[in-house]
Amino acid sequence: MVSTSKDSVFAVLSLSGGNDGLNTVIPRSNGLYRDYRPSLSIPEDQIIPVTDDLGFHPTMAPLKKFWDEGKLAIFLGIGYPNASYSHFRSMDIWHTCEPDTQGTEGWLGRAIKEMDPTGENVLMGVNFGRGLPRALAKDGVPVASVGDLETYGLLTGIDGEDQRTEALDVFGRMYSPAIGRGAVMDYIKQTGTDALKGADILATAPQMYSSDVEYSNTVVGQYMKNIAQTHLAGFGTRILYTTSPYNGFDTHANQAALHAGLWTDVSNTVENFFADLRSHDASDNVTLFLFTEFGRRIADNGSGTDHGAGGVAFAVGEHVKGGVYGEYPSLEPGQQEEGGNLKFNLDFRSVYTDILEDWLGLEAAPIVGGKFEKAGFL
Question: Among the CATH numbers 2.40.128, 2.60.40, 3.40.720, 3.30.1450, which is that of 9-148+220-368?
Answer without folding.
Answer: 3.40.720
